Amino acid sequence: MAQLVKIQDYISRYQIDLARYPTQFIRLKKGQWDRVRYQWQTGEEIPRWEHVDSEEEETIHKPKYSFLKKFFPLRQAKEAEDIESVDVTDDLTSAEEYILEEETTLHFEPNIVYNPKTLEELKKMFIDQFFHFQMKWASSTLREKSYVDPKYMRDTLLRSMLQTLPDNYLIFYYPILRLKKAPIELDIIIMTPTECICVTVLEQEDQAVYVGSSERFWVKKVGKNEKKLLNPMIQLNRMESIITQLFVQEDVEMPIKKVLLTRNGYIDYPGSAYGMQFIDKRKFPEWMLNLKKTASPMKHMQIRASQTILKTVQTTSFNRDIWNVEKKKD
User: In the prediction, which pLDDT does 37 show?
Assistant: First the structure.
């Protein structure tokens, strides 16, 4: 599961200490998955696993034994091997010294509402619960909180990227930067251990065909209808230019790639565009699969590159005490 470092102008835990939270994320997820899987395999009675939205000490509870183990046989060990598809990576954890937890932090507990019949069902339930936890980390700190637009909870692309890509990928989702006192919204940035991928999404009607060129306008064809739209490469090139300037200022050496993406349509671009990759409905599954296969651990330059972007982000948040007072008034 990729890590959601920044979304829009929401306050993010990663802004506080980017060198620390990626490691904490990996350890927390792996520890909770190991516990959940153990309980499922042993048939332990779990009437309800709560997802606690509170500030308490983050601890991984040891599993308790249950009389149900007498009646439910252990699940097949070979089935447990499928958990590798959850993409739990410990490369960073093993390379770093042990990091003491904060005395108070968000505590994650999966909320299991029915008994999964297979490990695949359990895994799906777990990562769906963890998605909500990721959104909390990307919109709150110990003292501050941002209002999350409900549309992001329904965003299938965001969910797909977070749940499919490895733990060592850092995602910036439409971050708003503050440059020369002016807010500038970028698109999607995927920071892998070895490269920075800028992604502009082009998704409108299903089965739309986008006929591209180097001109200012493209043509969108839906059935027999045609309509002009602004060349999406303009925004993508602008994003690349901004990130390049930031990297140069901070002496960050990280190659930047550009991707124009549509999951529900097709891109017809004659010839080729330098440094540009076109991913449409036909290529999307393979593109995601290739990204997922990257096995490199997190790298120092990846953290530096991400910190460089975080230094310029705009943040809108509220003090938690004020937030709680307002909620009581309601």
Answer: 86
